[in-house]
Design a protein that fits this description.
This protein is α/β, with parallel strands linked by helices. The protein has 17 helices and eight strands. The chain has an eight-stranded parallel β-sheet with strand order 1-2-3-4-5-6-7-8. Helix 5 packs parallel to helix 7, helix 8 runs parallel beside helix 9 and helix 16 packs antiparallel against helix 17. The longest helix is centred in the middle third of the chain and has 19 residues. It is globular and about 50 Å long. The termini are close together. The structure holds adenine and zinc ion.
Length: 335
């Protein structure tokens, strides 16, 4: 199964670019920018990556970003991820970025987006992996700051396919950003939002993303299974769910593989993704492997998970179809 997963054409839809910052690159960027890191070696830095909740994870995640200052830093970060993704046969990735995690430190929006955009273009040319960017607002900042960030993004509208919402969900419901997302929709952005797993008010937040925001996709969203009416509505709208099994093991009490099995059985468009692979030490192939080991997935199940991902990807129909044909050819040839 390892070999089958390695060769499987993959689509990654839940990936925070800042969560791909490996300690090796951190040290390189710190040196380049004249900064001193709290850890002396890569090994020490890696050993310090321990979290047991979303809140404790986010502390280390934001601290880690302090080395990202200049356009080439963002370029190198995204190029390193895209090269790794291509090596795992990721054919297409939708990449989240958190502009406010940088603008709040005095790094201009323009620096962030230009570095990421240049990497997206170069990676397609050099590694054959296609990617698009999704701009996330930090939900623990104000709705006003999110709106200002949205307006700041408009000159770069063509480089960003959609908007999302991430960071600490506690006390920061989707409805807080109703106006921001309504404006984003008017500007032609597609919409997604994190509904992290086993949060306070998880099911109420999923209800809001459906009824108040009108999202095109849900990030995580595992707790929809707690309410049959939510499952029904997600199915009726054909919405996809971007589940991140290894990440779940860090921020809650396990991978939620059983929920993934239920979602497959319910015919929900569930997908497998890596979230913050440098911190959780698992890229998308390792996430697929974990679910496959825990559930004893068949090759058909694995192909179905990737088919779901290409189907819900924010791509024109003809491009999706080309990826789906590639996936079908792989499935047939490795029977
Ligand atoms: N930012 C980066 N990773 C995140 C996650 N898993 N949940 C919420 N915000 C995040
Ligand atoms: Zn996430």
């Amino acid at each position: 199964m390892d070999e089958f997963i390695a060769g499987l054409p993959k689509c990654e839809l839940h990936l925070h670019i800042e969560g791909t910052l490996e300690p090796e690159l951190s040290f390189e960027l710190a040196k380049r920018n004249g900064l001193t890191l709290p850890h002396r070696t890569v090994e020490e830095a890696r050993a310090a990556f321990t979290f047991d909740s979303l809140t404790t994870f986010l502390v280390g995640y934001y601290e880690g970003m302090n080395v990202l200052l200049k356009e080439p830093d963002f370029y190198d970060l995204a190029m390193a991820y895209l090269a790794k993704a291509a090596a795992q046969n990721v054919r297409y990735a939708e990449i989240f970025f958190d502009p406010q995690a940088h603008t709040s430190r005095g790094v201009p929006f323009d620096v962030v987006i230009r570095g990421l955009r240049r990497a997206v273009l170069d990676a397609e040319r050099l590694h054959g992996v296609r990617a698009q960017l999704i701009m996330c607002f930090l939900r623990d900042f104000s709705a006003g700051y999110a709106m200002a960030t949205l307006l700041e993004s408009l000159p770069y509208r063509e480089w960003i396919v959609g908007v999302g919402l991430d960071s600490d969900e506690r006390g920061n419901p989707p409805a807080k950003f109703e106006k921001v997302f309504a404006r984003a929709r008017e500007e032609g952005y597609l919409l997604t939002m994190h509904c992290d797993v086993d949060q306070e008010d998880s099911t109420e937040h999923i209800r809001q993303v459906l009824q108040v925001i009108g999202v095109d996709r849900i990030d995580h969203g595992v707790n929809a299974l707690d309410d049959p009416a939510l499952v029904e509505e997600i199915k009726r709208r054909g919405l996809g769910l971007t589940v991140c099994p290894v990440s779940n093991g860090f921020v809650t009490d396990g991978s939620k593989a059983d929920a993934i099995r239920r979602m497959l059985d319910l015919d929900l468009r569930v997908t497998i993704n890596s979230d913050d692979p440098a911190y959780f030490r698992a890229y998308v192939a390792e996430n697929l492997q974990l679910v496959s080991d825990e559930l004893g997935l068949s090759r058909e199940d694995l192909v179905r998970l990737e088919r779901n991902a290409f189907e819900i990807a924010w791509l024109p129909r003809a491009v999706k179809d080309a990826f789906l044909t590639e996936l079908d050819t792989y499935a047939r040839s490795s029977r």
